[in-house]
Specification:
By secondary structure, the protein is of the alpha/beta class. It folds into four domains: about 1-40 and about 150-170, DNA polymerase, domain 1; about 45-145, Beta Barrel (OB fold (Dihydrolipoamide Acetyltransferase, E2P)); about 245-445, Rossmann fold; about 455-610, P-loop containing nucleotide triphosphate hydrolases (Rossmann fold). The chain binds adenosine-5'-diphosphate (ADP) and magnesium ion (MG).
Length: about 700
């Protein structure tokens, strides 16, 4: 018997290869299938008469197979299956390419549903490669309905995923409801089981919406409960005060090659005042890309070090930690301290090139090294601090509440908690941040450094490509550098790497044969990545072809051109992040958005970037441009790790979820009264713990 726990390889029609492909999507059990949500629906719910079909529209028909044949096409390259289908109003020709088995599956005389685009060939209408489904079942899953479209991976078809989910959808009822009945009633929510079945196979958009509301509520509620729990933790602890050191601070500021902006001064002051308190600081520093958050952080670090405390600085990627390591070394030069870098692959300090991991861990434990920059490796079990006073987390949304807790436990101070500063380039409005994070302290940098010029953004249609290449050549000849970002078609597979590698060849061999072109992508070894970034920083590479690995934080002041291929594939917020990689110095910078799509909608969407340089506004615009069947998009992944369906823009649900989270914790501060909720929280902690 199939249950929620049944392993996918034990399901009908799942062999070893399919199981492997599914596991790439994190699907290992029947339950995982139920929680693999569609990201949109194709609306094939209306069944049309053949006579009324309109060319170039999507449609579904229901008809009888009159004729079906397969043959090789004249060019011998492809296999052609031709079919004639009729209903009581007319007949239509149907063609499938490279699916020779169809003549075995579909037989003359059978009734089928066909969903797809209606085309027109010389004189007659036809459908090419429509999705087919026999009409002998009670309920269809692939056609003649709102058809769910799922995130997938190479060689796993929508039909396969849909079939598998439909084969276990009855188990949705067996999912145990984790919310108390009163809560489900109070907010008129669907039960969990109903929501899960309807998110996959809704009858109407309204059904889908209700399912979505329930599942978003769950995600946000869990997130906020976790935030509140960690808050309880912080409220109950004390911190060691870090005294404001006037001399060190003055010296730091005067050593900078630039004048601090007013917002930088103000936010630094807020942070320094917090550090003096004997309650742990829990502050979020928000500032658009390029607004200069690192300097503000460095000022806090400088004071913490001067008072004898250790400082941990964490960032989400190796490239970023490398860069912070160098930047801090430069910013804190006057203070003359040894800085360590600790990641999975790199162990070093500013004074020692060769160093074993165990030696570094010992130095940290003995308080001989005070400033440690690192990735997640910093919260691994064997790292222990001696007197950790301040923790800084860059791009905080990538770190869970849990990870913060665990670094606190390693601080070396039994009775106190270190001060926390998180930094993010996502400019979440204050009211929203308060609903999500409660009484978290917020410091916002709105102002950009003075001489900074606005990045000139342009949407480049295919006919203007040559012109743009010429422009890039000119700029490179003036001494500037350029990024060329290519979209990952499928990040889980080699396909994406192939796309950048091909683009790299073309640019290097054909377009810019006289320039130095480099290639950077996520599948390279860490050492290679570092070498390439260093070469780029040293201007040994003029043009860097890359994937979105450069998305966050990378700082190459001399890079003045950001050219993005297939821009229509990215979310606006993500494009904005990428654009933030240029315009980091006094050079006028440019962002060129290349698109292969000429549709007005694409151009309008990209045009939003030309008009706005406000990251939050752009993220919100992403939602406006979504079609009616769109549930969620790539653009929002990343903000908060645990949110799959919900986004920061679900204002109403956030408000309600917050209220409910508070109520739960008021009734039972340790959640013991709500064991099922506690269970979910624990489950989620395990999921967000990558190591
Ligand atoms: P982000 O907020 O994106 O993390 P960074 O801290 O990386 O920004 O700063 C971006 C660049 O701007 C760095 O090269 C930094 O040295 C420079 N910078 C920071 N503050 C100022 C300022 N007040 N005036 C001029 N340049 C500045
Ligand atoms: Mg930064």
């Amino acid at each position: 018997m199939v249950t929620l726990e049944t392993k996918i390889e034990d399901l009908n029609r799942v062999g070893e290869t399919t199981a492997q492909r599914l596991s790439k999507l994190n699907i290992k059990t029947a339950q995982d299938l139920l929680f693999h949500f569609p990201f949109r629906y194709d609306d094939f719910s209306k069944v049309s008469d053949i006579k009324n079909l309109i060319p170039n529209t999507q449609a579904t028909i229901r008809g009888k197979i009159e004729l079906i044949n397969s043959r090789r096409s004249p060019q011998k390259r492809r296999f052609l299956t031709e079919c004639v289908v009729s209903d009581k109003t007319g007949t239509i020709k149907v063609i499938w390419f490279n699916q020779p088995y169809l003549t075995k599956v579909l037989n003359v005389g059978e009734l089928v549903y066909l969903s797809g685009k209606v085309g027109f060939d010389k004189y007659e209408q036809q459908m090419i490669n429509p999705v087919y489904e026999k009409a002998n079942k009670k309920e269809t899953i692939h056609t003649a309905r709102l058809v769910p479209i799922y995130p997938t991976t190479q060689n796993l078809s929508q039909k396969q995923i849909r079939f598998l989910i439909s084969s276990v959808i009855n188990l949705a009822e067996a999912l145990s409801e984790w919310l108390p009945d009163q809560v489900v009633e109070k907010y008129h929510l669907l039960s969990l089981g109903q929501a899960i079945s309807k998110i996959h196979f809704p009858t109407t958009y309204n059904d889908a919406q209700k399912a979505l509301d329930r599942l978003k509520f769950d995600e946000l509620l869990l997130f906020i409960i976790q935030v509140l729990l960690s808050r309880q933790d912080i409220e109950h602890s004390t911190a060691e005060s870090i005294e404001f050191n006037k001399n060190i601070t003055k010296e730091f500021v005067s050593s900078l090659p630039f004048e601090l902006t007013n917002d930088q001064k103000m936010t630094s002051w807020e942070i320094l005042r917090d550090l003096e308190k004997e309650t742990p600081m829990n502050r979020l520093l928000e500032g658009e890309v390029g607004s200069g958050k690192t300097v503000v952080a460095a000022m806090a670090i400088s004071n913490a070090l001067a008072s004898g405390k250790q400082v941990a600085f964490m960032a989400p990627t190796e490239i970023l930690t490398q860069q912070h390591f160098e930047t801090l070394n430069w910013l804190l030069e006057k203070q003359n301290i040894e800085i360590a870098l600790l990641t999975r692959t790199t162990i070093k300090t500013t004074n020692r090139a060769k160093l074993s991991k165990s030696k570094l861990i010992e130095l940290i434990k003995n308080n001989e090294i005070k400033l440690i920059v690192g990735t997640h490796s910093l919260i691994q079990a064997d790292v222990k601090f001696n007197n950790l006073g301040l923790v800084i987390v860059d791009e905080q949304h990538r770190f869970g509440v849990e990870q913060r807790k665990s670094i606190k436990e390693k601080s070396g101070n039994k009775n106190t908690s270190p001060h926390f500063l998180s930094m993010t380039a996502t400019p979440i409005p204050r009211t929203l941040a308060l609903s999500l994070y409660g009484d978290l302290q917020l410091s916002i940098i709105k102002e950009m450094p003075k001489e900074r010029k606005k990045v000139i953004t342009e949407v480049v249609t295919p006919n203007k490509r040559e012109e743009s290449y010429k422009f890039i050549k000119e700029k490179v000849n003036e001494g500037r550098q350029a990024f060329v970002v290519c979209p990952l078609i499928d990040p889980s597979d080699k396909l994406g790497v192939k796309a950048v590698a091909e683009e790299f060849e073309i640019l290097k061999e054909e377009i810019f044969p006289n320039l130095s072109v480099g290639l950077l992508h996520g599948k390279l070894k860490t050492d290679q990545k570092k070498e390439i970034m260093n070469d780029f920083l040293a201007n040994k590479i003029n043009i860097l072809v890359t994937t979105t690995v450069v998305e966050v934080g990378v700082n190459i002041p001399n890079a003045a051109i950001m050219m993005i291929e297939g821009a229509e594939r990215f979310g606006l917020a993500q494009l904005h992040q990428l654009r933030g990689r240029v315009g980091r110095s006094t050079h006028q910078s440019y962002c060129l958005l290349f698109s292969d799509s000429n549709t007005q909608k694409t151009i309008d969407r990209l045009q939003a970037l030309v008009e706005s340089s406000d990251g939050f506004e752009l993220a919100e615009k992403d939602l406006e441009f979504r079609g009616p069947g769109q549930l969620y998009g790539k653009e929002q992944s990343g903000y908060i790790q645990s949110l799959k369906l919900a986004s920061l823009f679900d204002y109403e649900i956030i408000k309600v979820a917050r209220k409910q989270a508070q109520e739960f914790l008021e009734q039972s501060p340790d959640l013991k009264k709500f064991p099922k909720i506690l269970e979910r929280i624990i489950e989620q902690k395990q999921e967000t713990h990558p190591e």
